[in-house]
Amino acid sequence: MRNRALLALVMVAAAIFVFGVVGLIVSGRQEPSSDFVAAPRGTLAPAGPQTLQLRPESSPEPSPAGSPEGSPDETAAAYFQAWVKGDYDAMHDLVDEPPDDFADQHRAFEDAALSGSLRITVGDMVRTGDETAEIPFTQERDEQDAGTWRFDSSLHLAVRDLTWKVLWTPAVLHPEIQPGGSLVRTAPEVGPLQPVTRGGREFPRNSGAEAYLENLVKQGVAPATGVAVGWALEVDNPGLPSKTVLSYKPDKRPAGVRTTIDYATQAAAARALDGVQRGAIVAIRPSTGEILAVADRLGGRGAFERKYAPGSTFKTITAAALLNNGLSPDSTVDCPAAYQIPMNRSIHNYRNENHGTVTLRQAFALSCNTTFARLTIERLSSDTLVEQAKAFGFAVEGESGGMSTCGSLRRPENPDALAEDSFGQGTVEATPLCMALVAAAVESGEWRPARPLADEEQQGELPQNVPLPSNVAEGLRSLMGAVTVDGTAAGSGLPQGVAGKTGTAEDGQGGQDHAWFIGYRGDLAFAVFVEHGGTGRGAAVPIAARFLKGL
Q1: pTM score, two decimals?
Q2: Which one, 217, 230, 283, 357, has the greatest CB density within 10 A?
Q3: pLDDT tens digits along 316-363
Q4: Minimal CA–CA distance to 118: which of 127, 130, 105, 109?
Q5: Is 511 exposed, middle or buried (0-12, 13-18, 19+ CB in 10 A)?
Q6: 3-state secondary structure 435-502
Q7: What is each CA distance from 443 to 3, 157, 284, 462, in whole angstroms?
Q8: Are strands 338-340 and 279-285 parallel, antiparallel or unpaired?
Q9: Would you say the C-alpha torsion 67, 73, 78, 82 has a positive or negative sign?
């Protein structure tokens, strides 16, 4: 009987022990789940009903004198509870001789991991001695892009001063971390990245945009030394090579720095210049100012930086000033073969053509120098013409502001200079980019600066948009539409729906004239320029037709 009583007592004690281990320590085998969860990190949110019990329902007898207080599972439970809450002070109190930078090591680990949430699943406790124990556990961390990061660790405990304490080492954070080691987040580099089209494609070969792409690289917009792609978590231990424990790489490496260039538009511009030794095409999206194509056979970045007399394409700006000062497309004007400026020089039409009395629309379509010179002298002033040019991005020599690399002019000091400037000679100069922006402003009703990059934050500071008065924008569209219907660009093979303005500009150095044609079709504006090409109709318009038909 005494043996049976002793056996019963042993069985009761064993049951209490099992209850205290299996029932108290969270195990992945328990139902319902009682994993510790922090989502987001630092707040406690159990994955299921919280069934963790720190003591049996019937309290055990107090520990005999000299016996350790509590149990390893209670200390572990308190430690894990504090961990998912980010309570490093509470954790510190449960650790035997914690290092001075205990909390800092935890914070550094979390800063490197950047976990969206932390879940701790506790396994079965193993007694490794009378006063030592080990508890395995699993960490699950949600990592951006990489999904769930899961790894196993162990918590070692021992009795110290009659109290169960955690024997902490950095391996508690991650089993690969040794004393003095840490978790480090790195960003692998790929590259160099080059500018690409808006759709991410490489530029067509021999597209004429090479100098512009090289300039973006020089400006640092397209880094030539590589860029960070994805990330990796590495364990860095003293005296050992770094070991990657988690990494993320996107399925596709970035193609490059996106420009606003459209591949098909760029290819069409390049093909249209085949056989042209010195010319350029610049295409703009009027609604945004984005550069859709730049095919340059001028050398360097000539289409953006080299200025030429724009010839009669500048009449678009003069016409804007006239429309803004009382005229309309249907206003009656004269287009004689020659116009004598009172007390000054005589202005002649190309080939001394005399068209008599016409409307302003017809005078623009026929590109009457005499009409625009006379109307400018009689109705405008130097200040009026200059201010209108500034609204289209031109700079005035001697004044601050404006886009000096777009176009420029000097303030006319006498009637001769004012008349010459009115039809794009005299001191007026412009780049092909500048005149493409003029055509874009007519189509959209608002002058916008050119945008070469697809990402807004990379653009840097740009000049402000300048809206055109509605009557001016509508009037200019009427004038430019007439040029291709019954004016200097009519019957030249341009696709339907194109509006524009031809220009034939004297070189000023005694060479052959420069040829221009600017225009738009839908949400595409353009400038075609041929250095020493002759007339706008003869040299520039056929190139524009090839370009537009190639889209």
Answers
A1: 0.66
A2: 283
A3: 999 999 999 999 999 999 999 999 999 999 999 999 999 999 999 999
A4: 109
A5: exposed
A6: HHHHHHHHHHCEECCCECECCHHHCCCCCCCEECCHHHHHHHHHHHHHHHHHCCCCCCCCCCCCEEEE
A7: 106, 78, 11, 20
A8: unpaired
A9: positive
